[in-house]
Amino acid sequence: MDPSMMAGLEGLGAEDQAKMASMIEQLQLRDSLRMYNSLVERCFVDCVDSFTRKSLQKQEETCVMRCAEKFLKHTMRVGQRFGELNQNAPTQD
Q1: Dihedral of CA 71/74/78/83: which sign?
Q2: Given a cut of 60, is residue 4 above it in pLDDT?
């Protein structure tokens, strides 16, 4: 887990810190699974046209690879931008 997240929990007792850390990890896992499911659904809908074979056709496979790459690049860029904005935001002390 990101150490900066734990910094905000310093005022809590050890047991409460552990509970909060566990909750944060569960939320991060849930968000990761949602992102993965969104990627799979979007690329499948956009790229898979035919169900006549067990495996993907060459153009479908290429489309899925490009779709996944584009989705992941976009997600990384949004995360970077969010981090930049969060870093420049005034803190509440």
Answers
A1: positive
A2: no
Instruction: Name residue, tokens 């690329």.
Output: 43
Q: Calculate the average pLDDT of the chain.
A: 85
Distance separating alpha carbons of residues 17 and 25, to the nearest angstrom: 12
Tokens of 20: 């909060």
Q: Would the pLDDT of 2 be above 70?
A: no
SS3 55: coil
Q: Distance between CA atoms of 14 and 64, rounded to whole angstroms? A: 46
Q: Which residue's structure tokens are 């993965």?
A: 36
pTM of the model: 0.64
pLDDT at position 92, please?
Answer: 60
The letter for the amino acid at 83 is G
